[in-house]
Structures are given as structure tokens and as C-alpha cells.
Amino acid sequence: xxxxxxxxxxxxxxxxxxxxxxxxxxxxxxxxxxxxxxxxxxxxxxxxxxxxxxxxxxxxxxxxxxxxxxxxxxxxxxxxxxxxxxxxxxxxxxxxxxxxxxxxxxxxxxxxxxxxxxxxxxxxxxxxxxxxxxxxxxxxxxxxxxxxxxxxxxxxxxxxxxxxxxxxxxxx
Length: 172
Description:
Order of helices and strands: EEHEEEEEEEHE
Low-confidence stretches: none
Helix content: under 10%
CATH superfamily: Cupredoxins -  blue copper proteins
CATH class: Mainly Beta
Shape: globular
Oligomer: single chain
Strand content: 25-35%
CATH architecture: Sandwich
Number of helices: 2
Radius of gyration: 17 Å
CATH topology: Immunoglobulin-like
Largest sheet: 5 strands, mixed
Strand order of the largest sheet: 3-10-9-5-7
Mean pLDDT: 79
Distance between the termini: 38 Å
Number of strands: 10
């Protein structure tokens, strides 16, 4: 994606392992990269050594919540105990698979993948879509779980680059 910061394009990573890693990432043309939520600015160059190492930063406890600042990616909303259906797709792109996972919920139609990093995660490739009927991970309850939940792409570099958002489930 072609994102800008303070009127200037955010540079591509010049030393990425793969051309597929170039560019910025987002959800529905919006992005919440970790560097921006921390109040950092992108470097003028795309060299790795010019970026701030996020491992050296102190993250506030509310880092992924709206109290830390506006989350520009779309928020999905629902009510506790009610069914919640989310349609997710990868409309175009390179031949690298992506994942969709939502913390605290599983997908009724998708059994967990054995030995896969995140339960309830589903692989997406360009041109593929899923409709996830979300269900509670507690077998004694049904429907969506109240709270603020994070949806995200699985790999850490995608998550920290801005491929995430929130699901707000309110009490009935």
C-alpha cells in the first residue's frame, strides 16, 4: 500500500529478504502500524538500521485499545451472546498466504489446524475469502464474548505493520 506520513511517502524496506515484504500494510486501506501508535516517525530512508527497533520500546498497557489513540482500521461491533459473522478476503496481491485470527473466538465452520500457531486462524491467499461464523471458545456459552478483541494477520511483521483491528462486543 502506498501510505504517507506528514505528506511524504513512507519508504520501502531496502534490505528486506523478499520483494513481497516491500510497502506498508493495512486493513481496508487503513493502517495502525505500531511505530505510529508509539508516536514515532518513519525514517527518510528505507534502510533497516534507520528504523526504530520496536523491541527497544516501552509499550503502554492499553496499546491496542482506543484509549491509546484512534484505531483507524475498521472496528467490528456486536452484542454479547449473539451470533457474529465476519467476511474476510484477500482480493489481490502476491502469492504469499495471509491469516485471519480473532482472539477469544473460534470459527464454527473451521476446525483448528493441527500444530498451527494460532487456534481458529485460517489461511487466505489472493482471491480467497471466508465467512467466519464466530463462536465462543467457552463450550458452555454461545455467541460472541463481551469485551474488546483483536483481529489480526498472524505473522508478527504483518501485525506490527498495521494489519489488525478491534472487535467490540457489548453486553446485551
